[in-house]
Amino acid sequence: MKVALGSDHAGYGLKEVIKEVLKDLQVDVVDCGTDSLESVDYPDFGGKVSGLVSSGEIEKGILICGTGLGMSMVANKFPHVRAALCNDLFCAKMSRMHNDANILVMGGRIIGRDLAAEIVKVWLATPFEGSRHLQRINKIQKIEEDINIHGN
Ligand code: RB5
Q1: Catalytic: 65?
Q2: How much distance in Å is there from the Cα of 18 to the middle of ligand 1?
Q3: What is the pLDDT along the chain (152 residues), one digit of tens a residue?
Q4: DSSP β-ladder status, 103-107 and 60-65
Q5: Count H helices, E strands: the chain?
Q6: Phi then psi dihedrals of residue 110, to 5 deg
Q7: CATH assignment of 2-150, given 3.40.1400.10, 1.10.10.10, 3.20.20.140, 2.60.40.10?
């Protein structure tokens, strides 16, 4: 599996930790930056990861900013992206089972490294349940298409 990984400066430290977690899990990582603690704008890095997932080039992404809020807002602007802000294990599991989330977002200033590592492991290991949940995902897709066609 391949995962696109990105953060701003507030998520940089946790991104580096998660990169090692992914490597230990034998996951191919495409690191979209940032590469230091220097202040940057989260839409620049959220946009890179979300673009790769949106186009289908990479199946899943992980984004980290200070709270996870800004990255979530950016990611969910992209067609076909279902980004889930998960700072706990229950949401990580449910975001896969019920929402088929394809981008995991975490807050680097909210959670510690060990919890974040567990969240990533659970999120990657949990399959989508399909059935009634698929019908709801299809409705999200329909809303997206209607907005694109009618602009409202
Ligand atoms: C950066 O200070 C901070 O605003 C950003 O990381 C993020 O939390 C925004 O939602």
Answers
A1: yes
A2: 18
A3: 999 999 999 999 999 999 999 999 999 999 999 999 999 999 999 999 999 999 999 999 999 999 999 999 999 999 999 999 999 999 999 999 999 999 999 999 999 999 999 999 999 999 999 999 999 999 999 999 998 887 75
A4: parallel
A5: 6, 5
A6: -110, -45
A7: 3.40.1400.10
pTM of full prediction above 0.70 = yes
Which residue is closest in CA terms to ligand 1's atom 4?
66
Distance from residue 120's CA to the centre of ligand 1 (Å):
20
Please check whether residue 108 is in contact with residue 65, taking contact to mean a CB–CB distance below 8 angstroms: yes
Q: Which helix (H) or strand (E) holds 126?
A: none
133 classed as catalytic: no
Provide the phi-psi class of 68: left if phi over 0, else alpha when psi is between -120 and 50, else beta.
Answer: left
Tell which residue, 52, 128, 49, 57, has the closest CA to residue 96: 128
